[in-house]
């Protein structure tokens, strides 16, 4: 018997970042939107904890206990006083170290898959609690849809979305370390104001208005990501020239996100980005996508 869970990637349509806190994290107003690029995590009984991974970026994924999926299984097992005797297989389609919460998706997926496999019966509140311990983005990977994350991004308020949005994601050659991008933000922004969600952006999500969303997208980490990975400016320019409504760095990058009018525009912009030579590949996807779910 095995259990497979599908989990979406995310893009941050607003990422407002405050000053560094005493614990090293930053307070955020983080508007998450789940997008239809997915990892699948399968949990099956095994003699001991084992992780395998397949997919184009699999070589960059650690298979030891530092893997976020393994950490999720260990955290659930420990709380319930049982061994983490499970084989976790990750079918990886979300870019690694790309700012799309791929590791977080695998953590949320492993948690849900182990809960079902082991019959743990953890409540939603307990699962969300474990998610928050594992990482700031992990609760959103479980919930999906759209949500405003406050605190370090782990305290979620679900948001209504009035329609589908179409995107293209340009996958960069290489990754960026999330802590390094936050450190660069601190260096570039010595007097960051307290973060606040944009009412105009929340309204654009609520009405499903792509043009209004395009006018309100923002990412306070973008300048830091560009400072560490200057070639991203060429990718942003290529997508904009190809007709995207708006372009921004996804979270801590280096994946870049292009909001487009419809599915046809997504195919056109993706083709232009691939031909531009400014990214490794370009992937169309729609949002919102559902959160982690057993298949
Ligand atoms: C950039 C985003 O992806 C936007 O959603 C997230 O803020 C990052 O979330 P994540 O990868 O789950 O991050 P965590 O695993 O919780 O933290 C990794 C590191 O990122 C930095 N970090 C993360 C979240 C936050 N609110 N402030 C931070 O400064 C810290 O240096 C932390 O040590
Ligand atoms: N299951 C996992 N999948 C991918 N990377 C993992 C996983 N577990 C641990 N890692 C490590 O975490 C690092 C960041 O990977 P991840 O793909 O989660 O980055 P990210 O998408 O930029 O994260 P975020 O958007 O949440 O900041 C990788 O370089 C890898 O070493």
UniProtKB/TrEMBL annotation:
<feature type="binding site">
    <location>
        <begin position="95"/>
        <end position="105"/>
    </location>
    <ligand>
        <name>ATP</name>
    </ligand>
</feature>
<feature type="domain" description="GHMP kinase N-terminal">
    <location>
        <begin position="67"/>
        <end position="145"/>
    </location>
</feature>
<feature type="domain" description="GHMP kinase C-terminal">
    <location>
        <begin position="201"/>
        <end position="277"/>
    </location>
</feature>
<dbReference type="InterPro" id="IPR013750">
    <property type="entry name" value="GHMP_kinase_C_dom"/>
</dbReference>
<keyword id="KW-0067">ATP-binding</keyword>
<feature type="active site">
    <location>
        <position position="10"/>
    </location>
</feature>
<comment type="pathway">
    <text>Isoprenoid biosynthesis; isopentenyl diphosphate biosynthesis via DXP pathway; isopentenyl diphosphate from 1-deoxy-D-xylulose 5-phosphate: step 3/6.</text>
</comment>
<keyword id="KW-0808">Transferase</keyword>
<dbReference type="InterPro" id="IPR020568">
    <property type="entry name" value="Ribosomal_Su5_D2-typ_SF"/>
</dbReference>
<dbReference type="InterPro" id="IPR006204">
    <property type="entry name" value="GHMP_kinase_N_dom"/>
</dbReference>
<keyword id="KW-0547">Nucleotide-binding</keyword>
<keyword id="KW-0418">Kinase</keyword>
<comment type="function">
    <text>Catalyzes the phosphorylation of the position 2 hydroxy group of 4-diphosphocytidyl-2C-methyl-D-erythritol.</text>
</comment>
<dbReference type="Pfam" id="PF00288">
    <property type="entry name" value="GHMP_kinases_N"/>
</dbReference>
<dbReference type="GO" id="GO:0019288">
    <property type="term" value="P:isopentenyl diphosphate biosynthetic process, methylerythritol 4-phosphate pathway"/>
</dbReference>
<dbReference type="InterPro" id="IPR036554">
    <property type="entry name" value="GHMP_kinase_C_sf"/>
</dbReference>
<dbReference type="InterPro" id="IPR004424">
    <property type="entry name" value="IspE"/>
</dbReference>
<dbReference type="InterPro" id="IPR014721">
    <property type="entry name" value="Ribsml_uS5_D2-typ_fold_subgr"/>
</dbReference>
<dbReference type="GO" id="GO:0005524">
    <property type="term" value="F:ATP binding"/>
</dbReference>
<dbReference type="GO" id="GO:0016114">
    <property type="term" value="P:terpenoid biosynthetic process"/>
</dbReference>
<feature type="active site">
    <location>
        <position position="137"/>
    </location>
</feature>
<keyword id="KW-0414">Isoprene biosynthesis</keyword>
<dbReference type="GO" id="GO:0050515">
    <property type="term" value="F:4-(cytidine 5'-diphospho)-2-C-methyl-D-erythritol kinase activity"/>
</dbReference>
<dbReference type="Pfam" id="PF08544">
    <property type="entry name" value="GHMP_kinases_C"/>
</dbReference>
<protein>
    <recommendedName>
        <fullName>4-diphosphocytidyl-2-C-methyl-D-erythritol kinase</fullName>
        <ecNumber>2.7.1.148</ecNumber>
    </recommendedName>
</protein>
<comment type="similarity">
    <text>Belongs to the GHMP kinase family. IspE subfamily.</text>
</comment>
């Amino acid at each position: 018997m095995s259990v497979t869970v599908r989990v979406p990637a995310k893009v941050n349509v607003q990422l407002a970042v405050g000053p560094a806190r005493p614990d090293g994290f930053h307070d955020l107003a983080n508007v998450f939107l789940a997008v239809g690029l997915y990892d699948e995590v399968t949990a099956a009984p095994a003699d001991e904890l084992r992780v395998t991974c397949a997919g184009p970026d699999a070589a960059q994924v650690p298979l030891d206990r530092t893997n976020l999926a393994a950490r999720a299984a260990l955290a659930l097992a420990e709380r319930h006083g049982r061994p983490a005797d499970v084989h976790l297989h990750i079918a990886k389609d979300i870019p690694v170290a790309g700012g799309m919460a791929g590791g977080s998706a695998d953590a949320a997926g492993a948690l849900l898959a182990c809960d079902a496999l082991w019959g743990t019966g953890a409540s939603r509140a307990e699962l969300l609690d474990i998610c928050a311990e594992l990482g700031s983005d992990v609760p959103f990977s479980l919930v999906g849809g759209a949500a405003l994350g406050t605190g370090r991004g782990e305290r979620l308020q679900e948001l209504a979305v009035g329609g589908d949005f179409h995107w293209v994601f340009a996958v960069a050659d290489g990754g960026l370390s999330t802590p390094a991008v936050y450190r660069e933000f601190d260096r570039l922004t010595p007097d960051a104001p307290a973060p606040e969600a944009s009412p105009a952006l929340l309204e654009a999500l609520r009405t499903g208005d792509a043009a209004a969303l395009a006018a309100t997208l923002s990412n306070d980490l973008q300048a830091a990501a560009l400072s560490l990975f200057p070639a991203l400016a060429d990718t942003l320019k290529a997508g904009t020239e190809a007709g995207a409504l708006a372009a921004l760095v996804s979270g801590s990058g280096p994946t870049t996100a292009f909001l487009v009018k419809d599915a046809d525009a997504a195919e056109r912009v993706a083709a232009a980005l691939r031909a531009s030579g400014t990214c490794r590949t370009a992937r169309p996807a729609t949002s919102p996508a559902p959160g982690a779910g057993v298949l």
